[in-house]
Amino acid sequence: MEMKRKKLKNKVCWYxxxxxxxxxQQSCVDKxxxxxxxxxxxxxxFTTTLYRPVLGRNNLISENFxxxxxxxxxxxxxxxxxxxxxxxxxxxxxxxxVRVWHxxxxxxxxxxxxxxxxxxxxxxxxxxxxxxxxxxxxxANALSxxxxxxxxxxxxxxxxxxxxxxxxxxxxxxLIPYRERxxxxxxxxxxxxxVTEDYVHPTxxxxxxxxxxxxxxxxxxxxxxxxxFRRDVENGSKEYTLxxxxxxxxxxPISPRKFSGTDWGHLVHGFDMEMTDEYVRYKVAxxxxxxxxxxEYTNKDGDKAHVVFRYDRLMNGTQRVASSMSxxxxxxxxxxxxxxxxxxxxxxxxxxxx
Length: 354
Hints:
This is DUF5007 domain-containing protein. It comes from Paraprevotella clara YIT 11840. It holds the Pfam family DUF5007. The chain is mainly β. The protein has two domains: 45-175; 183-342, no CATH class. The chain has helices spanning 2-32, 90-93, 112-117, and strands at residues 45-46, 50-51, 59-61, 65-66, 75-83, 95-101, 119-125, 127-129, 136-138, 155-163, 166-175, 183-184, 204-206, 226-231, 241-247, 253-254, 271-275, 280-283, 305-315, 319-331, 336-342. Strands 14, 15, 16, 17, 18 and 21 form a six-stranded mixed β-sheet that branches. β19 (305-315) and β20 form a beta hairpin. It is elongated, with a radius of gyration of 32 Å. The relative contact order is 0.14. Mean pLDDT is 91; it is low at 1-9 and 17-21.
């Protein structure tokens, strides 16, 4: 009996020894197995190497890097920015207070206070690359008064892209901005800054007739209407405004009330509307539109404000005609702006049966 107990004890000890040795061996193997590394595709690269954003507005340049088969996220960093002649470019590398959204703008905000509560200032360099997307940002603070732009040769910059599997420096990327345009559409030459004509035309005109005309020859088209942008530099109020005016071909005011079918309460994302027989005015936040997202106040792409002025009238006794004029625009510089529609090709007919 004693002998059996000894044999059993020896077997247990043997099995335990085998288990211990196995665990130790596995630990030793695990210790020397290399950690799994990310893949870095040597063919990954920037699809855009020359960047030509417009100064004076926030520029986000997307879809400019192809990661290939690289493991993501990748990490991007700007390692060098110099002028084309090789000299330093502190205007793009030093930090400035730029306005950023802390909470997303939706287009549903009900007051200027609500809008301003969503954004604030942070110190950032004017040229940045987003850490994990490679998207480039040139902030609106960059202006032609101190940032080089076309026809100058601009800047050269390098970006390093890394993950745990490798890294690569992409050198010789080019930045040649165009000078700022305070508003669009505009006839300003993007290189020289010279304005060839100080007016533009509406985006569309539908079934608007000239005074006394009821035939097809009396229909207006966009070229019959000149649209002027004017900034009131003498108004020192910090509550910025946007004003719409309408004028005859002789520059006499047309009451906004004539456009009686207009949804004035939702024309622009503005507040405290004031209407007189000479203008309609809103308190607004700039730029317009505030962000590049589609809202009820923008075109379908979200990059322009979209306004429509409407009215209807009777023609030929009983025919109800719906007339309208639309205009898509952007304003990038803060201030007190006026948009003036001058019916230079003939005054619009608002009366019934004429």
